[in-house]
Amino acid sequence: MTDPRQILHDVFGFSSFREGQEEIVRAVLAGEDVLAVMPTGAGKSLCYQLPTLARQGLTLVVSPLIALMRDQVAALRHFGIEAGSLNSANDADENRRVGDAIRDGRMRLLYASPERLANTNATEWLARAGVNLLAIDEAHCVSQWGHDFRPEYAMLGEVRRRLGGVQTIALTATADVATRGDIVDRLFEAEPRLFIHGFDRPNLRLAMQAKENSKRQLFTFLDKHRHESGIVYCSSRDSTERLADSLSQAGYRALPYHAGMAQGDRAKNQDIFLQEDGIVMVATVAFGMGIDKPDVRFVAHAALPKSIEAYYQEIGRAGRDGAAADTLTLYGLDDMRLRRSQIEDSESSDEQKRIERQRLNALVALCEAPRCRRQTLLAYFGESTEPCGNCDLCIDGVMSFDGTVEAQKLLSAIVRTGERFGTEHLISILVGEETDAVRRFGHAQLKTFGVGADRSKTEWRSLLRQIYAAGLVSLELAEYGRWTLTDRGVAVLKGQEGIELRSDVLMKPRERRRRRAGFEAHAAVSGDDPLLMELKALRTRLAKEEGVPAYVIFSDRSLIDMAAKKPRSARDFGEIHGVGQAKLDRYADAFLSVVREHAD
């Protein structure tokens, strides 16, 4: 057996492992079964490629796409590693080369689709060929809870048994607690070694905007990224073609990609994107899985993604080189209706539809989050973090109000019904609607029945999504979408903590536009405005003195508002965006002094 670090240097040319890789490699070399959850770009492939080279035998890699197999085989062969694939795109010479290498014992890594492995003869032949490690990429596809469940993947437990219960490593970037449990149940007889190396991608800037003029919003975003490579996701083939044409006419090198195109045209456009710089790929979700282009500088969604996992996976295709990358997601009511109808009209089981509804609700909660988006996103995957300072909510702030009373009404309804019910039942109780279920469980007699009649059902849905995004409640996805309180939720219910919620997402679109237009009219100052620069310098000094990120003092939007309005009194200062009573008391004197000195 060869030292893994020596192989890492001599074969792959890397001086050190990335975070999390070495312990997984050593677990595989020790003969353990492994389930590894690692963020996109963390180097999952190395976790099975390197152990293969450190010992004798053949590794069988399950991969979902022919194009991905082709690229990985080519990359390995460039490293001098004997690799091949079993797929329908191979010509006769390639099939002969692969077959000879397997028979001679020279083949080290063999890639195959799950569909190919469903053939009993193929797996029996591979068992005789000496497969001693099964590596399953995109392992979330195994699970019915996974956002991209594929029946062919669900058969891989049986494939593993036909291979003699061979050692297995399953890898994915997107698996919440329910999905991880399902993967373990379907693939392994005994509990595998579990490695979870975080979902955070701190180099990605996260932003979401409600649609107003989506084309203008998208072009404003893309103007910051001219001559850079990126992906724009669309919800349909027609919108993909139309947007690619519009971008080409505007001077971008834009290419379409969707399942309705001829396979040759898709492959050609994908190769151009991978090989050249400054290409904007306008695509449906048919594009992306397995795309290993490290310098994608932006990912935009022209419409709401399918689920929170799909969103995470799709934005994860940006910034795989670790450098800063930008994301933007546009969403509207029409998108939500479309996604809901796609779920209801699908041929999925009732159970799978229920799961997909909950995943979509989690994504909408992210859109309406009252706090740092990264906190909300990571909380969905069971992680916590400090406010990131690299999302639109941290940078620009939000229009908010003291939502403690609204939150307490929701939390009380959840507790008084035994933490056993889902969204619509709870909202019926709050607005005082006697549904069949409310009558059946006697919930019209609860103290919370009708306490929220002053708000519409739509508003209460948004408020529930917000307290979910703020970490006050948990959604038990595997238990019929019931809501339960977290420790923080209990504290808010008891009045030990307060909660700020967003008011802008409760407004009608016309009201939002009016409020935003008012802000933009007041805030028309350039980035190099002298007063703005002085205010930023003060903010930086205060942040260093207090040991906090600059945005904790004031967001850029607040400073822009100060520079535009030039407040001269504490009363004026209190009208600035993002200035509540606490910040008024703490910072008014210092910032007003800068404004006055500048005016003088």
Automatic annotation (TrEMBL):
Pfam families hit by this protein: DEAD, Helicase_C, HRDC, RecQ_Zn_bind, RQC
Gene3D superfamilies assigned to the protein according to its UniProt record, in alphabetical order: HRDC domain (1.10.150.80), P-loop containing nucleotide triphosphate hydrolases (3.40.50.300), Winged helix-like DNA-binding domain superfamily/Winged helix DNA-binding domain (1.10.10.10)
Domain of life: Bacteria
GO molecular function (one): hydrolase activity
Domain Helicase C-terminal: 214-361
Keyword annotations from UniProtKB, A to Z: ATP-binding, DNA damage, DNA recombination, DNA repair, DNA-binding, Helicase, Hydrolase, Isomerase, Metal-binding, Nucleotide-binding, Zinc
Entry-linked PROSITE patterns: HELICASE_ATP_BIND_1, HELICASE_CTER, HRDC
Names of required cofactors: Mg(2+); Zn(2+)
Record domain HRDC: where: 525-600
InterPro entries linked to this entry: DEAD/DEAH_box_helicase_dom, DNA_helicase_ATP-dep_RecQ, DNA_helicase_ATP-dep_RecQ_bac, Helicase_ATP-bd, Helicase_C-like, HRDC-like_sf, HRDC_dom, HRDC_dom_sf
Domain Helicase ATP-binding: start-end pairs: 25-193
EC number: 5.6.2.4
SUPFAM superfamilies hit by this protein: HRDC-like (SSF47819), P-loop containing nucleoside triphosphate hydrolases (SSF52540)
Catalytic reaction(s) noted: Couples ATP hydrolysis with the unwinding of duplex DNA by translocating in the 3'-5' direction
Similarity comment text for this entry: Belongs to the helicase family. RecQ subfamily.
NCBIfam families (UniProt xref): recQ, recQ_fam
Identification of the protein by name: DNA helicase RecQ
Recorded name of the encoding gene: recQ
